[in-house]
Amino acid sequence: VQLQAFGGGLVQPGGSLRLSCVASGHTASIKLMGWHRRAPEQERELVASITRDGDTTYTDSAKGRFTVSRDNVKNMIYLEMNDLEPGDTAVYYCSADVGNGDPVRFFGQGTQVTVSS
């Protein structure tokens, strides 16, 4: 599975961005998809995830501001980010878990989000 994320950029505090990610390859085997981010000098963290059935989870900092969605026909995952804060500045990566039982997680190449005035 290959993943391509796009939609990052520079936005002012309080602004919004929508990230998109398209999957290709053995997409029928994709189970859970998610968005992660890595801020400078920090570990990568899971921001939000979504199952094929649309069940979602969010990290505490994303709840109420971010919305993850998915289109299984187009093999895409989205992250709508509102009320962005400087602390949201990071490289954002999409992920896809492939296979049953003990799935393998694939990551895309990342897209930079910078929140600054």
Description:
Strands 2, 4, 5, 6, 9, 10 and 11 form a 7-stranded mixed β-sheet that branches. This protein has a 4-stranded antiparallel β-sheet with strand order 1-3-8-7, with no helix packed on it. With 117 residues, the protein is mainly beta. It starts with a strand and ends with a strand. A hairpin with a 6-residue loop joins strand 4 and strand 5.
Sum up the structure in keywords.
globular
Topology:
Layout: E1 2-6, E2 9-11, E3 17-24, E4 30-38, E5 45-50, E6 56-58, E7 66-71, E8 76-81, E9 90-98, E10 104-107, E11 111-115
Give a nutshell description of this structure.
This protein is an all-beta fold.
Percentage of β-strand residues: over 45%
Give, in order, the helices and strands: EEEEEEEEEEE
Kindly provide the radius of gyration, computed on alpha-carbon positions and rounded to a whole number of angstroms.
14 Å
Q: Total number of β-strand segments?
A: 11
Runs in which pLDDT lies below 50 for 5 or more consecutive residues are: none
Overall pLDDT: 96
Indicate the overall shape.
globular
Instruction: Give helix % range.
Output: under 10%
Largest sheet: 7 strands, mixed
User: How far is it from the N-terminal to the C-terminal residue, by CA?
Assistant: 37 Å
